[in-house]
Write a structure and sequence with these properties.
Length: 79
């Protein structure tokens, strides 16, 4: 199996952190030396391991932003 190469080119922000110190983050990531894309996934504290995530182009992120803007967060029950 070929080695997966990645480089976090920009850390945009942390969305959450779990009890083990893993953080769910939005970053710009270059996969296998390709153009960086927006990426949402969990990372170990030292960023040597990662969980499953989703990678988005700038156009997809813009569409997601529009979809999120249309959500009424007050309609969700608070836990």
């Amino acid at each position: 199996m070929a080695e997966l190469k990645y480089e976090i080119t920009e850390k945009v922000g942390v969305l959450s952190e779990n009890a083990k110190g893993w953080t769910k983050e939005l970053n710009m990531v270059s996969w296998n030396e390709h153009e960086p894309k927006y990426d949402i996934r969990e990372w170990s504290p030292d960023h040597s391991r990662m969980g499953k995530g989703v990678t988005l182009t700038a156009d997809e992120l813009a569409e997601l932003k529009e979809l999120l803007a249309g959500i009424d967060l007050d309609s969700f029950d608070e836990e």
